[in-house]
Amino acid sequence: MTDPGTSRSERELLSGAPMFTFDANMNIRSWNSAAERLTGIPAEEVVGHACWEVLCAHDEAGGLVCHTGCSFHRLLTERWPVSPPTLVIKTSTGTRRAHVPMVVVEDRSLFAALLLDPGATASPISPPADGASPPALTPRQLTVLRMLAEGKPARTIAGDLHLAETTVRNHIRAILRAFGCNSQLTATAKARNLGLV
Length: 197
Fold this sequence. Notes:
The protein is of the alpha+beta class. It has 8 helices and 6 strands. The chain has 2 domains: about 10-115, 2-Layer Sandwich (Beta-Lactamase); about 140-195, Arc Repressor Mutant, subunit A (Orthogonal Bundle).
């Protein structure tokens, strides 16, 4: 089931793997049939409700993850890459573990999340079909790129590498130019596809 305002790009995503989309207010806009099967919760019960109320997710140590001040939501709206967490989510019969990758679907206004079996092994990265080679990055840029892929913001990277934040932001701009991207999320996705991170 989807919200009547569901966009075409959003509808195209909602097949196959268990998935839902949510908006900038963290309200679920769509919940596909695979998500219904995985959780046992029908779409009618979740669409329009806050994702944190529906998932009630905790980390594996029992720490609360889903709440009104969700750090994953903040990182996504600020265009930072989000490392896919493994969470314990609510189901109709109790709880279950799920690996939850999240992406921006429409510029800071719509997001998608998968609910994957954390025991499933990731498929190996295959080289790009067009035979593209990785862009030339300096060792420092490669380090910054890997830290971005871990979800670290520029300020944290600067502290970890003992650099000025402006220097790190310059490295990020150079990385975006090298990949021909306007967003860090797209650059890190391309880097993953090329096996760089």
